[in-house]
Amino acid sequence: MTTSSSNGIRPIAVRFGALGDMVMFRPVLEALAARWGAPVDLITSGAWTPAVLGDLEAVGDLVQMPGTRRRPFWLSPAKRRLVDWLTARQEAPVFIFERNQKFDEFLVRAKVPSDRIARLPASVHHGHDIDLQVSLARTSLAPLRPIADDLQPGCPALPVSIEAREGATAWLAEEGFDRGPVVLVQPGNKKTMRAGRLDRASNRKYWPIEHWGTLIQGVRETLPDAMVLVCGVPAEQAFAAEIAEAGGLSANHAVADRLPLERLFAVQTLAHSMISVDTGPAHTAAAVGCPATVFFGQTNPIRHLPRGSAPVVGVLHDGLFDPEDPHWTPVRLEDVAPERVLEGWRRLCDSIRSPA
User: Fold this and answer.
1) Around Cβ 50, how many Cβ atoms within 10 Å?
2) What is the pTM (predicted TM-score) of this model?
3) Which of 58, 81, 83, 157 is the most exposed place for a label (fewest CB within 10 A)?
4) If DSSP codes are grouped into helix, strand and coil, which group holds residue 46?
5) How many alpha carbons fall within 13 Å on the CB side of residue 253?
6) Cα separation of 324 and 318, whole Å?
7) Cα 323 to chain center, whole Å?
8) pLDDT tens per residue across span 37-69
């Protein structure tokens, strides 16, 4: 762990986000680094963080939060190393981008001065999460340098290398998915990877398999040459296979067990579009420039609608989401009809160039 750089004191950011959260965090880190004139050392968690943020010049050290949070402090060498690292950083400002108080134990043990700590405001924020976090990065504590208002528009951009794109192109050809425009379907979220019934109450982003089947059939009717691929992670492969079958696809079109993150990002740059529940791959799609249709039930699109260089259409149970006149009423995701999602996707198709 590095304690300083030739650019001066490095600010410290604390963010324990899921995949989509960390994609949205890219502009925040860029704003914070520009404000302080030095890379940001990030205390974080999650195996996806290096893949999403590792390329950013705005990032200094990636410091992983100890994985065994419940272990008593004196029985955890990892916790003690983190406190020692913070203790050596007494001059560094610490920006907490978490609402809970779980990290406070480490700040107290490291005796970080309270005037070196900045937090998100306690008041309710009615805008996008990116805008709130960028605001904290730009305005809190004593900055080392000013930052122009137009430097950080709050729109994540996730670069994909030429090599990764070439690898994805070869993979699509090997699998026989290069015979038409690729439409990606993302049905899972972090709750579907856990044991238990997929339709349990805690899995608020579950959409019934028959809904997915109806949706996929509608996509194929609208775009007959489409190669529809059901995405996910290896733990969701059985779920993806059921959805592929419900949509009249072969089992090979369930690719959840063949999409590591780097390949997913690259395939998204080549895809016609993605249709997704509000989850991490919807945010990576927007960030790499893949047009996306994202539907919402109990997650607020005002705060979480993916942002990127390509068009994004948000779908609610009672119509399409309008960022210019935002409104949202929470419902069970299963109450969002497949026909409504198809409407959103077709609207997306109207806004993008038809595939060659």
Assistant:
1) 15
2) 0.91
3) 81
4) coil
5) 23
6) 17
7) 19
8) 899 999 999 889 999 999 999 999 999 888 766
